Amino acid sequence: MRHTLGGRMAETSLLLSKQLAPRLPADLVARPALLARLDAALAGKLTLCVAPAGYGKSTLLAEYARLCAEAGTPATTLDGRNLQPTPDGFVNALRAALNDPGAPDTLPERYVLLVDTYELLAPLDHAPTRSAVEAERAFLARIGGGCQVPIAAYAWLEGATITLSGLIGARDGRVVRGTLAGPV
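That's the Porphobilinogen deaminase C-terminal domain-containing protein sequence above. Prediction below.
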């Protein structure tokens, strides 16, 4: 059976398998230390769990999805083997898994997205964009900012040079702007 979602077809099996935490094997060997590290990683934006095939990453993610469900933390598991490695393919798989045509815009601020076999999504990585975003985030993290001190950063690449333009606004209305360029 197929459903239309966002102008694309999504398999019912994908919808059903990803709305629930994956099944855990009966002979599961618990890994509380790794689960604790995943739990601690929730404070960050991204956590990667990388190991060669056969080391139990999928099982670990399934166990963590179950723990998220028990704790009431919204989580979804996507498998890189079941989606087209394009931006639209990723978003459509997320929408299908959640049965929510508005995702990711409708997700709560804090959401756990578990992507198994993420290495198959390598075509989604655009190195120049990644470099620019990393520079912008580093600037914003270093300055701090907040509601009382607005800050902004914009980075771009031209050849092997990355340029970062930053702005810091003071409460009294003063604005400090600057631009810095260097090798990528």
